[in-house]
Design brief:
The chain has about 400 residues and is of the alpha+beta class. It is built from 14 helices and 7 strands. Strands 1, 2, 3, 4, 5, 6 and 7 form a 7-stranded antiparallel beta sheet that branches.
């Protein structure tokens, strides 16, 4: 619906990423889907009255027999009903809409009309001035006169908050509906350019006026205009190649973004692995730092109890994680409570390191990238590909695994 555009606005405010391509690809299909629903809705409603009565009579007979028949007969009667229904359905001839030659200008207007319908604009019960403001935002966005990226998240949040309040009031059948100021409506109309995917379908400045005209008509229509039905076949033929081209373009952009990200990560990983190697080698100056066969470095501060956990055990731990430059990326201390997890469910270096101490023990772990998150850490986090990790840990409790 209309308010879904708010989520898409925040994607538009940043650089396009591989994750932002898919929403645009899905939005580009909305107009096509609305057209398909419009074409079939009339057909589903048309059936021969006598044939409907025949089906109803057959079903009534079965219900009466089911009440009296034994369970063995129920399945048999159900099969009979299915056969009758199938036979009747095969004889029903659904009407087909005649092909209509529609000028391209009208088809472009239909893009706007179906956009307003699929967004449910009419449910906001806007007056003429409100619809005009919403339409103008859509037109300016398509014409390139306004850019969504120039608007701050706070501004857009305020605009959509007004729309949300009005939508809730309409749903509650409130006597007095809260107003949406015209400036907010224009901003929402601008955001709808992304929500609907009309730009991805290849429409732009040259089409903005016609799409705006159709949008204004659709924004007032509480039901689909019957005159639109006859144009659906022509509209589908018109929009299908655009939708296919938009999908191909989105897939290509996604593939390109993924390839670029992988290349950038590979370069970054190489740099970080080299820096981590220098850091690890520098630990040799500290006599308290030990090493294991895996390449893990660790420094036991307090040994704790004699009993040490196995990798199959669960442990209760307080910890703080930092990078070699001192950047903190996680801390159970900051959250105010220790973390519990199985040692074989964390990165290898962390799990191995905690097997070196008992309950009550404290240790510092120096984990090379290969024993940490390697070249594929969580996207967007503080840990980057190839990063060496440092954990200061306090083992509180050991819970033997099964």
């Amino acid at each position: 619906m209309l308010l879904a555009a708010s989520a898409l606005f925040f994607v538009a405010c940043g650089e396009q990423s591989a994750d932002s391509v898919a929403p645009a690809q899905d939005a580009a299909a909305e107009v096509v889907e609305a057209a398909e629903v419009a074409e079939t809705s009339e057909q589903v409603a048309v059936e021969a009255p006598t044939k409907v009565k025949a089906v109803a009579a057959a079903v009534a007979d079965v219900k009466a027999e089911v009440k009296q028949a034994a369970e063995a007969k129920v399945a048999e009667k159900v099969d009979e009903v299915k056969a009758v229904a199938k036979e009747v359905a095969a004889k029903v001839e659904l009407p087909t809409l005649p092909a209509v030659d529609v000028p391209e200008s009208e088809l472009i207007e239909l893009v706007g009309y179906l956009t307003a319908q699929s967004a449910g604009v009419a449910t906001l019960k806007l007056d003429e001035a409100g619809v005009a403001a919403l339409t103008e935002g859509l037109r300016k966005g398509l014409a390139g006169e306004l850019d969504l990226k120039t608007l701050t998240p706070d501004v857009m949040q305020a605009a959509f908050a007004q729309a949300q309040a009005r939508a809730e009031a309409v749903q509650a059948s409130a006597a007095d509906l809260p107003a949406i100021d015209l400036d907010a409506l224009q901003k929402i109309g601008l955001a709808m350019v992304m929500q609907t995917g009309v730009a991805e379908l290849g429409f732009g400045a040259d089409d903005a006026g016609l799409i705006a005209k159709g949008f204004a008509a659709g924004a007032f229509a509480t039901e689909m205009d019957p005159a639109i039905q006859a144009k659906m076949a022509a509209f589908q033929a018109f929009i299908k190649p655009r939708a296919e081209a938009a999908q191909a373009k989105a897939q290509a952009a996604q593939a390109e973004a993924m390839a670029r990200m992988e290349a950038e990560n590979a370069v970054l990983a190489e740099k970080n692995i080299a820096a981590g190697k220098v850091f690890i080698e520098g630990l040799s100056a500290d006599e308290g730092v030990q090493s294991s066969e895996s390449g893990l470095r660790f420094k036991v501060l307090e040994a704790g109890s004699d009993a040490k956990p196995a990798l199959t055990d669960k442990v209760l731990v307080h910890y703080k994680g930092t990078l070699i430059d001192g950047t903190q990326f996680d801390s159970s201390y900051d959250r105010g409570q220790p973390a519990e997890f199985p040692l074989n469910g964390v990165v290898p270096g962390f799990g191995e390191g905690l097997t070196k101490i008992g309950a009550g023990g404290k240790i510092i772990l120096y984990i090379p990238s290969a024993l940490g998150y390697g070249n594929t850490p969580r996207p967007g986090g503080a840990i980057k590909p190839g990063d060496t990790l440092i954990f200061e840990c306090e083992l509180i409790e050991i819970n033997p695994g099964s």
